[in-house]
UniProtKB/TrEMBL annotation:
Lineage, broadest ranks: Bacteria, Pseudomonadati, Pseudomonadota, Gammaproteobacteria, Enterobacterales
InterPro entries for this protein: Gp5/Vgr_OB, GpV-like_apex, GpV/Gp45, Vgr_OB-fold_dom_sf
Name listed for the protein in its UniProt record: Baseplate assembly protein V GpV
Gene source species: Erwinia piriflorinigrans CFBP 5888
Residues of the Gp5/Type VI secretion system Vgr protein OB-fold domain: 100-167
Amino acid sequence: MAQRQPAGRPQPSAAARKAVYLCHRCAGCDPSLSATERTGAGKRQRLARTGCRAAGTAASGGEVDGQAASGDRTFFTTGQGASMNAQLTEIMRLITNLIRTGIVSDVDREKWLCRVQVGDLETNWISWLTLRAGGARTWWCPSPGEQVVLLSMGGNLETAFALPAIYSNRFPPPSASVDASVTDYPDGGRFEYEPASGRWYVKGIKSMVIEAADNITLKTAELVVETDNMRINGKVAIAGGVTQQGGALSSNGIILDKHQHAGVKSGGDTSGGPL
């Protein structure tokens, strides 16, 4: 049912009835007000401050072209009897969805997508953000249970991206150091650099492979290798002295410090080969 206008008040135009103006500085013009009330000194001053030509025209009972006056002000056109509260509720919903937090519920590694649980809702398959994705690329897949930030363009969760990550009770930080860089892996591997001691610490890994097409150079005052066995597949050149102790030194099956020679003669003759 159409709302009755109080007696003595002129009827606003159809365009004015449809015009509802909203911004962060002015509550807008009420199409139910009379022309006098809509063009009062206070209203004119507010509209002048907002700089909205369309709202000013609507407030004075003129025609409205239905276009927004500027980028930070929204001009709503509603049908007769439509609720402005519904529009405001939708706006608030979109604003709330711009940035939210959630928990990764599933991961598709082949398509580099994940799903995120937000309260009682679960997103569709969405992308997660990575450090680099161009000529240089990085890969670090989020894990189920990991807490992330959802960034939704326009407040629409269907277009959201997941930004890893936020510490949680399930996955607390691996260190409380002021300056250290620490990465813990689910298999027990740990990479840690502590500036306070200047030490890079790697533990918990099963193997390490380093491939270089040309060369690898290690420069240090002392290199200590602790291992049960060491094997070098290739030629070895040593520029400097060699000290060996604590075991036999063998060359082609001959123990150098214990072998004997056959055909030994006194004088300047050459002995036979080693036994």
